[in-house]
Design a protein that fits this description.
heterodimer; binds adenosine-5'-diphosphate; binds magnesium ion
Chain lengths: 246, 289
């Protein structure tokens, strides 16, 4: 690919509390339409890397460009970039005081300044897309985990983001609900959405990923295609990790 | 036949369970009726009632105004208390600690005898003198020849700040705890959708936080209502002050204090019951979602 990447991270380092080195000199480029899966043991810095992309964490050193905008530059309007980057969390983080429909509408109205009827129209389309239009008027507490996560995906998609970030979207789900969420993500990948996904679902990586990044102890250890990853993992650590999760 | 008998037994049992823990309320209600009967039939009690009840307007006025101001002050201070700005945090914390640390009675004395006169002196020399005089009911034709005096200020307003600031300090901690009780994920989700900090607070955090602290706010209202009795020490004509006046004039302490307790208890028990109900329905809502 000779186009410039839509996400470009150069030499990112991040330390928490002065001594926990969450990221050590990580660089990563993601091109438009790509699906990049990040794997690695717990505490290896996957979430931190993802959260640096939409500036929920601030990198100590290094540079980040998202959609041609310099993120690590002081004058950048961070909210504008966040509206272009959807994020899905392990714990769903739906707004419990709002119905599914209102969850999907709110940011459209507040951030995108769409009027009520337009926001509702978009929200209903997105709920339809994630397969739960009938739950529009239900509060999150009455939804199953899988349904909540699908509403969370709809909420992010309703902003028409250019990039979607997923941080272990199925890790908090009961096994029987994992598929319904992965199916939504696979559809999204097929449509050409740019996605960065932290997950241990190797089936998803195999089916959708253009590249797989393996992280350990804050470092990017290996970056490869899914086929190469499973057929001949290079590093000992990666072999060990794969033997544990497969 | 048998089954209907059983279900009616169950019903009685249910009602019994429901009301067995309401015995105190029943006792209170009966006592209430007794006192009302007394007030209507005993000349001394009627006399005391007629004298004391004139202060109810002042008691309610102080309570409601101070509560409204305390809500505003408390909310603003809560944001100071969670602020990352060191200066703002320290100013807010200083205020909270001082006002929580001093007895309310002392704060009332300070405001009545030091702060309010100082503010009045300052206004009297300022360009606002005429305006403030008119607000407190001076004749617009003579204001240019007079200056504002402390006694021009309605007694309710002389001590209003003492209550508002004291309860503002208490309620800022209620609001702060409420805001902090909302998981960090809520703020992150809102911010990741592009909302600003203020938008996230307004649409996501505060609506949930305020709901959670409604019972605590209602309880503060009850405490505030009771604490307004302290205003009697600086001659604010609320119900406690009038009771002291009535009782010492006529040597009728039992009558005066019975009437006074009757008024406070009825107000506070009604309000506490509402607060309890709020709490129970919020908990039920949380359980059901
Ligand atoms: N907010 C934080 N404060 C302190 N330490 C943190 C914070 N977030 C992450 N860390 C630490 O940084 C390291 C990487 O965390 P994380 O990115 O969450 O890893 P992963 O998502 O791969 O499990 C861990 O050691 C974790 O304890
Ligand atoms: Mg993580």
């Amino acid at each position: 690919m000779d186009k410039s990447p839509i996400i470009s991270m150069k030499n990112i380092s991040k330390t928490f509390g002065g001594f926990v080195q969450a990221l050590r000199n990580v660089s990563l480029d993601v091109y438009a339409g790509e699906v990049v899966v990040i794997i690695g043991p717990s505490g290896s810095g996957k979430s931190t890397l993802l959260r640096c992309i939409n500036h929920l964490e601030t990198a100590d050193t290094g540079e980040i460009w998202v959609d041609g905008i310099h993120l690590t530059h002081k004058s950048t309007d961070i909210n504008k970039i966040r509206a272009e980057v959807g994020m899905v969390f392990q714990q769903f983080n739906l707004f419990p005081h709002k119905t599914a429909l209102e969850n999907v509408m709110l940011a459209q109205q507040v951030v995108r300044k769409r009027d009520r009827s337009e926001a509702e129209r978009v929200a209903r389309i997105q709920l339809e897309k994630v397969g739960i239009p009938e739950k529009a008027d239900v509060y999150p507490a009455k939804l199953s985990g899988g349904q909540q996560q699908r509403v969370a995906i709809a909420r992010a998609l309703a902003m028409n983001p250019k990039i979607m970030l997923f941080d272990e979207p199925t890790s908090a789900l009961d096994p029987e609900m994992i598929k319904e969420v992965l199916d939504v993500m696979l559809d999204l990948a097929k449509e050409g959405m740019t996605m960065v996904v932290v997950t241990h679902e190797m089936g998803f990586a195999r089916a959708a990923a253009d590249r797989v990044v393996f992280m350990d102890e804050g470092r990017k250890i290996e970056e490869t295609t899914p086929v190469a990853l499973f057929e001949n993992p290079e590093h000992e650590r990666l072999k060990l990790f794969l033997s544990k999760i497969l | 036949m048998v089954s209907s008998e059983r279900s009616s037994n169950q019903l009685i049992k249910q009602i019994g369970q429901r009301f067995s823990r309401r015995g105190w309320l029943l006792a209170f209600f009966l006592l209430d009726l007794l006192i009302i009967y007394g007030i209507f039939n005993n000349d001394k009690l009627i006399d005391a009632w007629n004298f004391v009840i004139r202060g109810i307007g002042v008691t309610i006025q102080i309570t409601i105004w101070a509560f409204v101001f305390a809500l505003i002050i408390g909310l603003i201070t809560a944001f100071g208390r969670i602020s990352k700005n060191v200066l703002i945090y320290n100013v807010a914390t200083f205020y909270v600690e001082i006002f929580r640390g001093l007895p309310l009675l002392v704060i009332i004395l300070i405001f009545a005898f030091v702060v309010t006169p100082a503010i009045v002196d300052w206004i009297a020399q300022s360009p606002f003198d005429d305006v403030v005089q008119v607000i407190f009911g001076a004749n617009p034709e003579t204001i240019s020849t007079t200056a504002l005096r402390t006694r021009d200020i309605d007694s309710v307003w002389r001590i209003m700040l003492a209550f508002a600031l004291t309860y503002g300090a208490f309620m800022s901690e209620v609001f702060r705890a409420g805001i902090e009780s909302i998981g960090h994920g809520q703020m992150e989700a809102a911010r990741s959708l592009g909302m600003t900090y203020v938008q996230a607070m307004r649409f996501i955090i505060l609506p949930q936080a305020v709901r959670n602290v409604l019972p605590a706010l209602a309880n503060n209202f009850v405490f505030l209502l009771k604490d307004t009795s302290l205003a009697s020490v600086v001659a604010v004509p609320e119900i406690s002050q009038l009771t002291r006046q009535y009782s010492s004039n006529n040597f009728r302490y039992p009558e005066g204090l019975l009437v006074l307790s009757f008024i406070y208890a009825n107000l506070t028990i009604v309000l506490s019951t509402i607060a309890n109900y709020l709490e129970i329905s919020l908990q039920a809502e949380k359980r059901e979602g």
